[in-house]
UniProtKB/TrEMBL annotation:
It comes from Jeotgalibacillus malaysiensis. InterPro entries: GP_PDE_dom, PLC-like_Pdiesterase_TIM-brl. This is GP-PDE domain-containing protein. GO terms for biological process: lipid metabolic process. Residues 2-234 form the GP-PDE domain. Gene3D superfamilies: Phosphatidylinositol (PI) phosphodiesterase. It comes from the Bacteria. The lineage of its organism: Bacteria, Bacillati, Bacillota, Bacilli, Bacillales. One of its GO terms (molecular function) is phosphoric diester hydrolase activity.
Amino acid sequence: MSKVFAHRGSSIKYPENTMLAFKKAEKTGCYGIELDLHMSRDGYQIVIHDETVNRTTNGRGYIKDLTLRELKKFSIKRKWYRNEKIPTLDDVLEWAMTTNLIINIELKNDKIYYEGQEEAVVQKVAEYGLGDRVIYSTFNHKSVKKLKQLTDSEVAALYSKKGTNPLLLVKSTGADAIHANHRVMTESLMKDCQQHGIPVRLYTLNKPPLIKKWIDAGLAGVITDDPELAENILKEK
Ligand code: G3P
Ligand code: CA
């Protein structure tokens, strides 16, 4: 049975990677949420998609150059939701403890590598006792290997490059699962993964025909901006 993961929270309606979007996602009954993680100048784990705050907040600059205090002063740049702030991983995990959600933590360490981030995140998750409810993922395949050495939690290798062979990727990284852009997945590759017992989750599935097609193909996880829609499709099955 496919499981629904809310991509950046319920980001179709609410500002991505905010506590509001995560809380609204939980209300849809989805299985999990997906979030993106960077690291601030003073070593805090910051939940935001881009390397900079420019697109999603009223601030400017790279996360790596800003302190948590500076980051917390910025507001989310979206009409109706200007009271929302950039969350930290602590904000999310503290709330997640009150839910049954699975948390897919994507380390955004492929463009900028944050030294010591893997260790810090694994330790943080352990502090909250959430190791068995976390799936790590990253496009940085060296980091996948490193995470596999640091934790018993599930670790997924992310990719979006056409021609990537998921079986070889799992072999070279030790990943437990594959998270791939749906545009580069084929039904044949999907079958190969299934035969080898490798869970495949695809992003970003927002349209009913796509969601239906991949659920029918036995997809493990639907990573979607619209968890309500995906849950409704699953219920009809
Ligand atoms: O984790 C799947 C997906 O979130 C990866 O792409 O750019 O939305 O973080 P992106
Ligand atoms: Ca992501």
